Structures are given as C-alpha cells and as structure tokens.
C-alpha cells in the first residue's frame, strides 16, 4: 500500500512539469508516437544503430499494478528481445527496482521472472535522475538507447533530457489507473495538441529523421 501511494505521488514529476511548461516544452514531445508497442519496427531501430531498449511498465507493457504482459503485446516484446537480445530492460516508477520502495530488489526479481526482461535498479523516479544507471546496464551512450513509455511528463521528458530516442504509446487501459494519473494524462494530451499545432518539435536526435521512423505501416496510423 505504501509503495502504491508513493507511486501516485511524484514530487520530481510535479517539479519537472513546471520546468517543462516554463522553459523547455519540447522535452515533452516524443520523437515517435504509436498506439502500442506492436506498431514499433524493432528491426528498423536495430539497423539504424540503436543498441538497447528501455521500457516503462504500467500501461506500456502491462495493465497498472499487473505483473504480466498485456495479452496482445507478447509477440512484439519477443520480437524486440530477438533484435536486441539482453539489451532490453524495464525502468519503472512502480515499486519494482526503486530503492526507496524495493531496497532488497525483491519486487524487481519477481517482475524479471514474470516479464522475462531485467529491471533496472534506480534511486529516482522519472523524470528525475540522469542516465548513469542506463549506461552501466547497457554499456553504451544513452543516445543509442530507446525509451518507450505512455507518460509524457515522466517517460518522455526523462528520455529526451538524457538524450535517448523517445517513443510514446497510448495507455493500454484506464482501469485501475490512479485518478490523479488520469487527470494529469488529460492535461498532457491537451498541451501536446496545442504545442504540436503551433509547430513545436521534439529535441533533435542524430539517428532520427521523421515522426514516422520506426513505425510498422505508418500510413495506417
């Protein structure tokens, strides 16, 4: 229960939101947006030169607070693992892997067994923190990594400010999602629509060219 309450409150996220809104709105814009991970062309990412993939958990790979992959995403996750091997990991704001709530790594270990991918141990909730834990885990510069998540003020901002390619997804389900997260999500969507219509672009990335990069059948989306 304490971990869930901690997951609902993200002081770093609140502070980051203010800074993004006032100083650098482009950090909130993903390089690529897809309905879910099944639309991502993992082989194209690998061929472009990316070395690894970092996933958010809730509403990206699983339903909120659930430890199993969303039924329709298993094939895509397996395809990702075939392309990147062991260079696929989870960086979540849930208790698993976060030293504050999972100091012994018990929840991280259980989640690794359930999902079949490693959980990065870290000390700060996204978007706070640098990419040191990622560099240590993957052994490469953060610019060669892909951040995939459903939240713009956490996953996308964290990825963009640390130089990763960012791919955002639609939430898998609103069932079980904390009320405050749902409200913030609506705010994110409204701001993104306004900023994109004004011509705002995400931060440049050396391995990214257009918003349709790395999408399967982009004409359908």
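^ Assign residues to that structure.
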């Amino acid at each position: 229960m304490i971990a869930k309450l901690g997951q609902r409150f993200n002081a770093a996220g609140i502070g980051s939101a203010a800074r993004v809104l006032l100083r650098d709105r482009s950090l909130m814009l993903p390089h690529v947006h897809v309905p879910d991970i099944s639309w991502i062309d993992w082989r194209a990412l690998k061929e472009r030169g990316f070395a690894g993939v970092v996933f958010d958990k809730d509403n990206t790979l699983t339903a909120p607070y659930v430890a199993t992959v969303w039924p329709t995403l298993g094939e895509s996750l397996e395809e990702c693992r075939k392309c990147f091997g062991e260079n696929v990991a989870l960086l979540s704001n849930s208790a698993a892997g976060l030293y504050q709530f999972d100091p012994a790594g018990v929840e991280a270990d259980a989640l690794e067994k359930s999902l079949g991918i490693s959980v990065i141990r870290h000390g700060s909730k996204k978007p706070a923190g640098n990419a040191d834990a990622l560099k240590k885990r993957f052994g490469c510069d953060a610019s060669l990594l892909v951040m995939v998540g459903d939240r713009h003020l956490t996953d996308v901002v964290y990825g963009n400010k640390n130089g990763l390619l960012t791919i955002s997804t639609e939430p898998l389900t609103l069932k079980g999602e904390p009320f405050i997260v749902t409200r913030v999500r609506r705010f994110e969507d409204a701001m993104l629509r306004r900023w994109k219509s004004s011509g705002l672009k995400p931060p440049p990335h050396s391995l990214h060219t257009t918003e349709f990069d790395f999408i399967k059948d982009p004409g359908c989306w």
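The first helix runs from residue 2 to 8.
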